Amino acid sequence: ITPLWLKSLSGVLTMLGIFGTGLVIANKEVILNVSGWFYIMIRRPFVMGNRVSIGDTIGDVLEIRLLDVTMIEVLPRSQGGQSTGRILHLPNSMVFTQTVANASKEFSFNWNEIVVPLTAGSDWKKARDILLIIAADSMEDITREDSRIQDAEQSHDIHYNYLTPSVYVEYRNGAILLHLRHLTEPRQTRVLTDLIWREVLVRFARMKSIQLFEGKYD
Fold it and tell me: What does the pLDDT look like over 141-197, one tens digit per residue?
C-alpha cells in the first residue's frame, strides 16, 4: 500500500507545484510591488515629502502604500521644476527597474546654474561682478554651520569646498557665457531663477558696456 500511496502523493505534489508556479506567474507584479514596499521601508531611498525622480517621472511623494507610491507630478528643472497638479500612482516594483534620484533627503540643496550670454565686446568682468552682487542679495546665506550641511557631511560624507555662489566664464560660438552656479532648495529653484533674471535685466539695461547675446550659442 505504501508505494501506491507515495506514487499518488507524488502526483498531488506535482500538481500543487504546477499550480503554485502558475499562481506566482499570474501574481508576479503584485509580489514585486510588495517586495518593493519592503525595500522602500527598510532601505528608505525616499520618505513622504521628498522630491524624487523614478525613471523619467519627477514628483513630491505624498503616500507610500503596499502596492504603489503616490506623487504629485513636478516638471523637470529645465522647465522650472514646479508642480503640474497631476497625481501619479507608481508601482513599487519600479524601484528595482528604474533609477531613483532623491533631491531632498541626503542633501537638502541642489546646485543650480543660470547661464547669462553676453556679446563678445561686452565688459564680462563687470557683468560677473554684478551677477555675484545679485546672488549675494537674493540668496540665502548657506554656510558650513548650517545644520542641513552638517547632516549631509556627517551622515553621507557629502562635502563641497565652496558653498557660496560663483561665476564661471566660457566663450562659445561668438558669445561670452557667464555661468552663475549656486545652491538652492529644490522647491525654490524657479522662484530664485526668476528673481535673479529680473535683477539681471534691470541692471544690465543700465550698462552700455554690457549687452546680452541674442543669437544661438549651443
Answer: 777 677 777 777 777 667 777 788 999 999 999 999 999 999 888 888 888 999 999
pTM over 0.90: no
**Residue type at 175?**
A
CA distances from 95 to 33, 127, 159 (A): 9, 45, 27
- What SS3 state is found at 202? helix
Cα-based angle 133, 188, 197 (whole degrees, multiple of 5)? 40
- 68-74: strand order across its sheet: 83-91, 68-74, 57-64, 51-54, 100-102
The set of cell numbers assigned to 77 is 528643472
C-alpha cell at 167: 561665476
**pLDDT confidence bin for 119, thresholds 50/70/90:** very high
Q: How far apart are CA 104 and CA 46, in angstroms?
A: 9
The rounded distance, in Å, linking the Cα atoms of 148 and 107 is 7
